[in-house]
Amino acid sequence: MRYWLFKSEPFKWSFEAQKDKGDAGQEWDGVRNYQARNFMREMAVGDRGFFYHSNEGKEVVGIVEVVAEAHPDSTDGTGKWECVDIKAVKDLPRPVTLDEVKAEPRLKDMVLVNNSRLSVQPVEESEFRLVCELGGLDPKDVMGG
DNA sequence: GCCAACGTTGGC
DNA sequence: GCCAACGTTGGC
């Protein structure tokens, strides 16, 4: 099991919108960055991740789960781009802001801090656990296994 | 709204 | 294959 972070501007696609899709989930489409695509290719069904609101909010707002591994992006005509499907699992009772992440020494290596432009990122298990705790969740409840 | 950081494109 | 120009992202 690996852990990830999905970044979206809430104007375009918010965690609320994600939740409306229910357990069927939704394509994480529109990614046109090779690094991000390659990370999605590494994802497995059941992997967990954070949903992060960029620009507006700048905070981790919820937990998501990968429900379909990488497949061609239906919004792409070139055949170059792929995406996974994800579903919303849980809200963070207390969103964890970028400021909080930056203020926590144990999170200083998070990609979110060091490569802020990357829209799909890997998250270390220890980082995942810690952000869950900061957000008011018991990691055991969301780490699936 | 600005701009730094980064990725991509295209001329050579 | 280098690199300047350009576009985009996202924090501030």
Automatic annotation (TrEMBL):
It comes from Fulvimarina endophytica. InterPro entries: 5hmC_binding (IPR052181), EVE_domain (IPR002740), PUA-like_sf (IPR015947), THYN1-like_EVE (IPR047197). It holds the Pfam family EVE. This is EVE domain-containing protein. PANTHER family: THYMOCYTE NUCLEAR PROTEIN 1 (PTHR14087). Residues 2-134 form the EVE domain. It comes from the Bacteria.
